[in-house]
Design goal:
The protein is an alpha/beta fold. The protein is built from 9 helices and 10 strands. Helix 2 (35-61) packs antiparallel against helix 3, helix 3 (70-85) crosses helix 5 (116-123) and helix 7 (162-176) crosses helix 8. The N and C termini lie far apart (42 Å). The mean pLDDT is 88.
């Protein structure tokens, strides 16, 4: 038992020393490029630490029927941890109250890179969760945390239509007043400017079927802070705007395509506007 404890402790110590050494080499300008692996290591450690916290808090809250708060609490912990370990933050510059006032709702955001998990950590309101395929429910660790914390699962595999696929998710949202977050682009864009990919329709089918508001969230382009191919990962502040909620009352399946196009256009305009003002640009720090 003693030996089993020693190995993880030695690994954690070596990991921490390596990360601190890389940060020091970067800060002293001895190896400026060392900031990239330093922040990568710090980010992974932060993610693992907060994921562990998430599982524990989910288990503690479940007997109190408050487990649907777990993703919000875990997100907040990750946001503050990343601010400390990487000095990277997302800052909401307008409309934050809309995330709370529209419950339940479908929140949609632009998807730039793996760093967007930190965007979720900043914007997640109480009683909100991600959506996931039902097949992930039984995946070790990740699926367990999702199930414990009230993730809204979507059963695409056994559905013959969009309405059938989202039926369970709609019931979960309306019964528990649970908001959900979805990236409608479906994949990371790694955009170097104010751009977004085409939107998939899932988020909009879900909102229309549940007859709840859509709340668009737009993060400024942060290619200047994070560009994996260029080996760049800088500290900095990334501004975020929460746009006006879009009502789906009275809309049907035939309105989904037009709804998605309107929301995408409004988000693209906001993304371009963010890049045109000093407040709206991602601001990097020297080290």
């Amino acid at each position: 038992m003693h030996t089993l404890l020693v190995y993880p402790l030695v690994f954690a110590l070596a990991y921490t020393l390596l990360t601190l050494t890389l940060y020091a080499l970067s800060s002293l300008s001895l190896i400026p490029a060392a900031s990239f692996p330093a922040r990568i290591l710090a980010a992974y450690a932060s993610l693992l630490l907060c994921a562990t916290y998430g599982v524990i808090i989910s288990l503690l809250l479940r007997p109190l029927h408050l487990h649907r708060l777990a993703q919000h609490l875990t997100a907040r912990a990750f946001h503050h941890t990343m601010a400390l370990t990487t000095r990277v933050t997302f800052a909401i510059v307008s409309g934050e109250h809309r995330l709370r006032d529209s419950r339940p709702c479908v929140i949609v955001g632009n998807h730039q890179s793996e760093l967007d998990v930190l965007l979720l950590a900043r914007i997640f309101p109480p009683w909100c969760s991600v959506t996931a395929k039902s097949s992930l429910r039984h995946t070790p660790f990740l699926g367990w945390f999702m199930a414990l914390s009230g993730t809204v699962f979507i059963d695409r595999a056994n559905a013959t239509s969009a309405r059938q696929a989202f039926a369970g998710a709609v019931e979960e949202m309306l019964t528990h007043r649970q908001s959900v977050f979805i990236f409608p682009e479906g994949t990371r864009s790694y955009a170097q400017g104010p751009e977004m990919g085409a939107f998939k329709k899932g988020a909009f089918h879900l909102a229309v079927q549940a007859q709840v508001d859509l709340v668009p969230v737009v993060a400024a382009n942060y290619w200047g802070l994070l560009a994996p191919k260029e080996g760049r990962f800088r500290a900095g502040r990334i501004p975020v705007r929460v746009l006006e909620p879009v009502s789906t009352k009275g809309l049907g399946a035939g309105d989904v395509e037009g709804l998605a196009a309107r929301v995408r256009e409004s988000m693209l305009v906001a993304l371009e506007e963010l890049g045109e003002t000093e407040m709206g640009r991602a601001v990097g720090r020297v080290k």
